[in-house]
Automatic annotation (TrEMBL):
Keyword Transferase: yes
The protein, known as: Uncharacterized protein
Localization in the cell: Membrane; Plastid, Chloroplast
Primary localization class, coarse: membrane
NCBIfam families assigned: PRK12887.1
UniProt GO MF annotations: prenyltransferase activity
Top-rank taxon: Eukaryota
Keywords, sorted A to Z: Chloroplast, Membrane, Plastid, Transferase, Transit peptide, Transmembrane, Transmembrane helix
Membership in a protein family: Belongs to the UbiA prenyltransferase family.
CDD domains linked to this entry: PT_UbiA_HPT1
Keyword Transmembrane assigned: yes
Length: 363
């Protein structure tokens, strides 16, 4: 109201003709003088207070936006995408196999399960960032703790909250076995990053942990929980055996190639990885070779078991993905394994990971 009054007064002062229409000609000057004096004596301080409040609100909004951005980077979005796509694909597979058991009232439970998986993922990648601040300042300066956008104390609050929330959701919705597997995943994640074990320092234990969590625990756990929610006993289906074996080997490739862009920082902090031991080129070729083995095996399985798999889509999609991998490897070789090319190659491996889960329900 007061701001609007001030604007109106200024309009009257700048437009005498408008003022003449509103006020009688006689005494206009005196009234205008009284109005201006009134504005100067009271409205100016009120306007300043209003402007201060507006600036404070803008500052709060900016801080919230900065925290949202830091929290999202803290969760490592590429791993969140992998968790969402993978778990959704496994649920879809279980539903396709048991279409007569579909119950839409279970959708909220499924969403709670997905939230629990994201919480577990956030705990594992978050606790790794807490103990890797020095390395990340060299290898991944964009991460929120390394960049100074998130304090260590705030990060601890986040990871502990994620662990408690995720465990609580699983314990109240999915039974003892799934809860035990979920807690095992959290423990393995801590063993990977937290001293004195800090198994990420050793190449073999590090890749075994990643392969176990991302490969076996996720696939078995989601499929088991889905069948249990549908009221069905657990039975290994050929499709789930395939995707579990495929993704476990794929997770092994992720485990050995994830350090390709980080060789500089790992050498500085004496972190032993396959890339620091065997060299970037050798590990790139090894990772690509293992993935090609996966794709060749998938094509062979498609033709060997036509009664189990959808032969056409399975063989064609895996053939195309294998060719794309070879092309990306050729680009890496042509770029002479520059840091930018290595990062691009690693991101492409994650894209192949997403693609496998996306085609899984159709095979």
């Amino acid at each position: 109201m007061q701001v609007g009054f001030r604007v109106g007064v200024e309009c009257l002062i700048r437009n005498p003709q408008l003022g003449a229409q509103i006020f009688p000609r006689q005494g206009l000057k005196e009234r205008r003088t009284r109005v201006i004096c009134s504005v100067s004596s009271g409205t100016g301080s009120d306007f300043a207070e209003y402007k201060s409040n507006e600036e404070e609100e803008a500052s709060v909004r900016q801080r919230l936006e900065n925290f949202r951005d830091a929290f999202w980077r803290f969760l490592r979005p590429h791993t969140v995408r992998g968790t969402i796509i993978g778990s959704t694909s496994l649920v879809a597979r279980a539903l396709l196999e048991n279409a007569d058991c579909i119950n839409w009232f279970l959708v909220p439970k499924a969403l709670r399960g997905l939230l629990a998986l994201i919480c577990g993922n956030g705990y594992i990648v978050g606790i790794n960032q807490i103990y890797d601040v020095g390395i990340d300042k060299v290898n991944k300066p964009f991460l929120p703790i390394a960049a100074g956008d998130l304090s260590v104390s705030t990060a601890w609050t986040l990871v502990l909250s994620l662990a408690v929330l995720g465990t609580g959701i699983v314990a109240t919705n999915f039974g003892r076995l799934i809860t035990s597997l979920y807690v095992l995943g959290l423990v393995l994640g801590a063993m990977y990053s937290v001293p004195p074990l800090r198994l990420k320092r050793f190449a073999v234990p590090a890749f075994l942990i990643i392969a176990t969590v991302r490969g076996f625990l996720l696939n078995f756990g989601v499929y088991y929980a889905t069948r249990a929610s549908l009221g069905l006993p657990f039975v290994w289906s050929p499709h789930v055996i395939f995707i579990t074996a495929f993704v476990t080997l794929f997770a092994t490739v992720i485990a050995i190639t994830k350090d390709l862009p980080d060789v500089e920082g790992d050498l500085k902090f004496k972190i032993s990885t396959f890339a620091t031991k065997l060299g970037v080129r050798n590990i790139s070729l090894l990772g690509a070779g293992l993935l090609l083995t996966n794709y060749i095996g998938a094509v062979v399985a498609a033709f060997r078991f036509p009664q189990v798999f959808n032969t056409g889509p399975m063989a064609i999609t895996h053939g195309i993905l294998g060719v794309c991998l070879l092309y990306q490897l050729w680009l890496l070789e042509s770029a002479k394994y520059s840091k930018e090319a290595i990062s691009t190659f690693y991101r492409f491996i994650w894209n192949l990971f997403y693609a496998e889960y996306l085609v899984f329900p159709a095979i």
